[in-house]
Amino acid sequence: MNSNQEWVGEALEKVREKMQWVSEKNRDKIPYTTGADGSYDDRSDESRGWGMDDGLNWWTNGFWGGIMWLLYQDTGEERYQEIARISERKLEKCFDQYYGLHHDVGFMYLPTAVADYRLTGNEEGRRIGMHAANLLAGRFNPVGKFIRAWNQNGDNDTRGWAIIDCLLNLSLLYWASEESGDPRFRQIAMMHADTVLANFLRPTAPCAISWSLTRKAEGWSKATAVRAMGTARPGPEVRAGQYTALPTATPIRGKRNIWKRPERWQTTASQTFRRAASFRWTSGSRRSLPGRIPAQPA
Length: 298
Description:
A hairpin with a 2-residue loop joins strand 4 (207-216) and strand 5. By secondary structure, the chain is mostly helical. It is globular. The longest helix has 23 residues, at 3-25. It has a three-stranded antiparallel beta sheet, with no helix packed on it. It has a two-stranded antiparallel ribbon with strand order 1-2. The protein is built from seven helices and five strands; from the N terminus they run αααααβββααββ.
């Protein structure tokens, strides 16, 4: 065993030890951040005056449940499953509230409901995951070919707003397509990613975090970048010859990684690319190596 393996083993033991009491302390919460006394807040606390897309609808609310499922996968301890399902049941209430949901439903429901279904075969997890995938697909603008980031909130006109972060939520659509056999989810994911490639990555300026597309009589057209950043990485799903395979989690003790999609996936025509194919941008070009492949029908 080399020094790196020893370090990983020691780090995992510390995580397991700490999470034994952290999980119990916060078992009935959806924690996000700590206060001055070191105690976590609770995003599911309905007594607080949350904003429309805050509180129970906050975009990181799936992370706590996801950590619990990873611990359950690692240790096999049933209490982590129980705590994970507490937050899973709470997050289902967001469907009833509806207005506060956004493009980050993948972050909310992939690590919770979908992980539950993948690990335990719980059909309730599948139902919740498919519900979330349909809501995400429903945000798709078929003329502009983008997934709308946020609902209307106050005076901000967000009808044409898209955000690069949404790439990390496309995994929910790919999962739903494979799970249901319905190609629409995958096609929406591909078309949104095409729009990101065409508009967000600029050879002479920083990569845009979000774009505002202006509605014209004939449809939607690119306007201006709302925010920008220095670098960006495409989403975790592999697109044949076009998108990077970014692992979103590392298997623990050699067990099956619940976040990675199955090995079986479709390519186009006779082209076959490795699932973990490397990806690099061509300077000043919208083409990737070994080349762009348009969105394909089923």
